[in-house]
TrEMBL record:
The lineage of its organism: Bacteria, Bacillati, Actinomycetota, Actinomycetes, Kitasatosporales. This is Uncharacterized protein. Residues 95-112 have a biased composition (Acidic residues). It comes from Kitasatospora aburaviensis. Residues 90-112 are annotated as: Disordered.
Length: 112
């Protein structure tokens, strides 16, 4: 099905968005503390989920970053769109800004 094909005017259409971000952790302690606070303040986590979240934060700083990803906020203000499902993960990766393929989407810091 292409974007111009329709199965009915009122039929829901689902779109899978794939987004890849590379984030540099510049202060692991600050990130960990903020993530632990985020987990402590999350009223929707049950005790088991909270324990798993704390363990993930303690083991790997990439686990900390995942607690700040909010797909609802990403699509919340888009008219005519409702979030149907969301999954995401964070993991350490190799990053070489000089390597092939990385420069295409690299955010350049401006010198002041």
């Amino acid at each position: 099905m292409t974007s111009t094909d329709t199965t009915g005017q009122d039929a829901p259409r689902y779109v899978r968005l794939s987004i890849e971000l590379i984030a540099e952790i510049t202060d692991e302690g600050a990130l960990k503390a903020a993530a632990l606070q985020q987990v402590a303040d999350d009223e929707y986590l049950d005790d088991d989920e909270r324990a798993q979240s704390v363990e993930a934060i303690e083991v790997d700083p990439s686990g900390s970053l995942a607690h700040f990803i909010d797909p609802v906020a990403l699509l919340g203000d888009v008219p005519g769109v409702e979030l149907a499902s969301a999954t995401w993960e964070s993991a350490q990766t190799e990053f070489d800004p000089e390597g092939e393929g990385w420069d295409e989407y690299t955010v350049e810091e401006s010198a002041e």
